[in-house]
Specification:
Length: about 180
Amino acid sequence: MAARGTFYGLTKKEFDELTALPEEHRPLFLCDTLYDRPDFDIDANSQDVDKAWDALHRCLGELPPDKALYEIDDSYRVTWIDLTKFGSHPLNCAVLGGTRLYESDNAWLVHLVEPGAVAQIAEALRPIERDEIARRYAQYCDRVWPEFGEDDLEYTWEYFQLMREFYQRMAEGGRWVVFVADQ
């Protein structure tokens, strides 16, 4: 899998459809069914963040560089770490916060943020400038992947700005936000 991430802004109807599905169908509902619907405005109600989601989460969630998102025991069972133990609310919920909607394995990350929290996140993202992202990037992303450096920081900053604009739109529309990434 490519480890690419996308945010989706859902109406109440779409939220109800998603949460009524069995867990194993939720990623495909977002990535295929919803994406292909003619009544879902993909340009207005989704935001791709490509592989920058990991750096964005580490920067905003203050996840230490030596910490993985999950642990694997001797029986190869995956245990997701409690990401709320890192960083401060609501920034630590911007990417991998809210309710985890997929627990079956480590193949997908699917996280839901409710409209009230979406508004809090949008407000918290608003004043963040590039210097703050650069400081956090240096602190939380160093040695996490080989691409670490100035080019990757610029890539992260570009997607941060798009994510921030997305959260503003979703907050104004009172939408739920779901983040989905394949692992």
